[in-house]
UniProtKB/TrEMBL annotation:
Family indicated by similarity: Belongs to the PRAME family.
Lineage: Eukaryota, Metazoa, Chordata, Craniata, Vertebrata
The keyword Repeat is assigned to this record: yes
Chain's gene name: LOC121136290
Keywords: Leucine-rich repeat, Repeat
Protein name: PRAME family member 12-like
Superkingdom of source: Eukaryota
Transmembrane region(s): none
Residues in coiled coil: none
Entry keyword annotation includes Repeat: yes
Length: 478
């Protein structure tokens, strides 16, 4: 006798061989057969069956994105055609419960749960558990269908699939809401990025990443959309450039600055803010942070210049006094502003877990100003002082001031200035000797878990000399 799973497989194969019969049988098809039949039609690109199954789907959510590892326009068209059939139904069939089309490409246990059932029957409690965790729709109504998707746009142009979806969704805004929790731009678009928000619910976006080098003009035109993302929790901006023809146009640049910075007053739920290579922060940092209502957990401002007034504002800004992550790498500070940074560290001594100050301080006395405040940050788990020119003497003091930092799990320090010869090359023996001595200085006050001493980049091989707990001799690493 054949096992129930074999009989189920035979039934699926039989239905897939006769599309007309499979479509006509959907009204009477047990819900247990819907997932495996859908997967079979998906794998075989049987778009007619897919279209009909979407309109008759007996579950609240259809996680089709987990099956679509490679974008497929033909399948996407079939799925959206099925949604059209569903939307056009004046009285939806009681058996059809579809409310959410999930296009996230993440793994989803819905398909795994149904594939694992041996007898073809999935208990009611498993049915509920197999549905993905969903946020409540922003708009509600009997005829509203929700589409969930996250976008990582790595091309300068929109792919054909996204163009098709955008056109389709734009025509159905009254019965459709598109939820996008994470939106990432990995390239400077040649299209207007604001057009995507014509179909997305801006309030659904919780993470926005601009990882490409956007020019000021593109960012300014996108800024009104940024202000509509009222539930944004993470904002990452990497590099903003100025079009060459704008260098002498001060009025136009100031308009762009105002257009962008004014939107931060709308981002009241922001928790993580990364501004890397954003040149116009100098003398304007207070305008960016002033209106944030929720305390930030993460603040990264790197590769730019900050004024003394910016640092002074940071020391008393309410939104940064609960930071757990602070990164000010490659920031050019005025000579007298490091004392202000020390005050900020004092305010963060009970919360700060990660501190990154790579490439910031060129002289020993500057980091010396920070040592008393640094020693009070007892919650620190990670510190990074690489790419600073520090002497053996100040590095020893730095090691000694970390006695209270017993939660540190990762420490990264620059090699002492004494390990370089007159032309700037590393002297390997001196490197190993001095790093070993620094390590022993640290072990007097506490035992490190993971620690690295890293040289400047090697001119010949573009690698680094690295010394840590696992190597007794330094080596040049790429």
């Amino acid at each position: 006798m054949r096992s129930p799973s074999s009989l189920k497989l035979l039934a699926i194969r039989s239905l897939l061989k006769d599309e007309a019969f499979a479509i006509s049988a959907l009204k009477a098809l047990p819900m247990e057969l819907f997932p495996p039949l859908f997967q079979g039609a998906f794998d075989g690109k049987q778009t007619n069956i897919l279209r009909a199954m979407v309109a008759a789907w007996p579950f609240r959510c259809l996680p089709v994105g987990a099956l679509m590892k490679i974008p497929d326009l033909e399948i996407m068209q079939a799925v959206l055609d099925g949604l059209d059939l569903l939307i056009k139904q004046k009285d939806r069939q009681r058996s059809c419960k579809l409310e959410v089309l999930d296009l996230w490409d993440a793994e989803n246990n819905f398909w795994q749960v149904w594939a694992a059932t041996e007898d073809g029957v999935c208990p009611p409690d498993i049915i509920g558990e197999s549905q993905p965790a969903m946020h409540l729709p922003i708009r509600q109504g009997n005829q509203v269908v929700t589409v969930m998707m996250n976008l990582s746009l790595q091309s300068v142009d929109l792919c054909l699939l996204l163009k098709y979806f955008h056109s389709w969704a734009k025509q159905r805004k009254d019965v459709l809401q598109v939820i996008c929790e994470k939106l990432e731009f990995g390239a400077l678009p040649v299209y207007k990025p604001l057009m995507l928000l014509e179909v997305f619910e801006p309030r659904s976006i919780q993470e926005l990443e601009l990882n490409a080098c956007w020019d000021l003009r593109t960012f300014a035109t996108f800024a009104p959309g940024l202000g509509k993302m009222r539930n944004l929790q993470k904002l990452l901006v990497n590099n903003i450039s100025i079009p060459s023809e704008w260098f002498s146009n001060i009025e136009l640049k100031e308009w762009c600055f105002t257009e962008i910075i004014s939107q931060f007053s709308q981002l009241n739920k922001l928790q993580q803010l990364y501004l890397n290579g954003v040149f116009f922060l100098n003398e304007r940092l207070d305008q960016v942070l002033r209106y944030l209502e929720s305390p930030l957990e993460t603040l990264a401002i790197t590769r730019c210049m900050l004024s003394e007034s910016d640092l002074r504002y940071l020391t008393h800004c309410p939104s940064v006094h609960q930071l757990t992550y602070l990164d000010l790498s490659d920031v050019t500070f005025p000579d007298l502003s490091l004392a202000l940074l020390g005050r900020l560290l004092e305010r963060l001594r009970a919360t700060l877990k990660t501190l990154k100050l790579m490439g910031c301080m060129g002289m020993d006395f500057q980091i010396g100003v920070l040592l008393p405040a640094l020693s009070q940050c007892s919650q620190l788990e990670e510190v990074n002082f690489m790419r600073n020119s520090l002497s053996m003497s100040i590095l020893k003091k730095l090691m000694q001031h970390t006695a209270n930092l017993r939660l540190l799990t990762l420490e990264m320090y620059p090699a002492p200035a004494e390990v370089y010869n007159v032309i700037g090359d590393v002297m390997p023996d001196r490197f190993a000797q001095d790093c070993s001595e620094l390590l022993e200085t640290l072990r007097v006050v506490r035992e490190p878990k993971e620690i690295y001493f890293v040289s400047r980049r090697c001119v010949d091989c573009q690698g680094f000399y690295v010394y840590n707990l696992e190597v007794s001799l330094c080596s040049c690493w790429e």
